[in-house]
Design brief:
The protein has about 170 residues and is an alpha+beta fold. It has one domain: Porin (Beta Barrel), CATH 2.40.160. About 20% of the residues lie in helices and about 40% in strands. The protein is built from four helices and eight strands. An eight-stranded antiparallel beta barrel has the order 1-2-3-4-5-6-7-8. A hairpin with a 4-residue loop joins β3 and β4. The longest helix is centred in the N-terminal third of the chain and has 17 residues.
């Protein structure tokens, strides 16, 4: 009987010691999943000509990335936040860019309100932060390892689009 109590005591201590005592679930690092160099092309909405281009994706934090997209004609850098959506990782503007695009700021802790300790999903983000007609400009296809993003450019004849489509190297 004494041996049984000792064994049970050791088992209880082992179980307690193996538990995460801070009650926080560890969240995945979304940005590390897609960081890297993507080679592809930029296609202008004016000329419809595709020119070789590169997008370098770097991590700012677990859910925000910096995109440096360039070729011989364009060199632009911007930040976006990541939202899981099945096999896609959808992106949305950050901070002032978000406010300029949609006319309001995002709610406080907008990225921490996911279900079951996970990041905010795309559908949660759309429901909580956007109107029905709000436009979004890109995504990462996690299965195909591709990046598709439309950049709005301002030229002498007004705004036009440059669409980047590329594959992770």
């Amino acid at each position: 009987m004494k041996t049984l109590k000792i064994i049970l005591g050791i088992a209880v201590v082992a179980i307690i010691a193996s538990c995460n005592m801070d009650d926080e679930l560890e969240q995945s690092n979304l940005s590390s999943e897609i960081a890297g160099i993507y080679k592809g092309a930029l296609t202008s909405s004016i000329s419809q000509i595709a020119n070789p281009a590169t997008s370098e994706i770097t991590s700012i934090n677990n859910y925000t990335i910096q995109v440096h997209c360039y070729n011989e004609d364009i060199d632009t850098t911007f930040s976006v936040e990541l939202y899981p959506d099945g096999q896609m990782m959808r992106v949305c503007s950050t901070d002032d860019d978000f406010k300029n695009e949609y006319g309001h700021s995002m709610s406080a802790n907008h990225h921490m309100m996911g279900n079951n300790g996970n990041w905010t999903s795309w559908s949660q983000h759309m429901s909580n932060e956007h109107n029905v007609n709000d436009k979004h400009y890109g995504y990462f296809d996690m299965n195909a390892n591709t990046f598709d993003y439309t950049i709005i450019m301002n030229g002498s004849n007004g705004a036009y689009e440059q669409r980047f489509m590329g594959s992770k190297q």
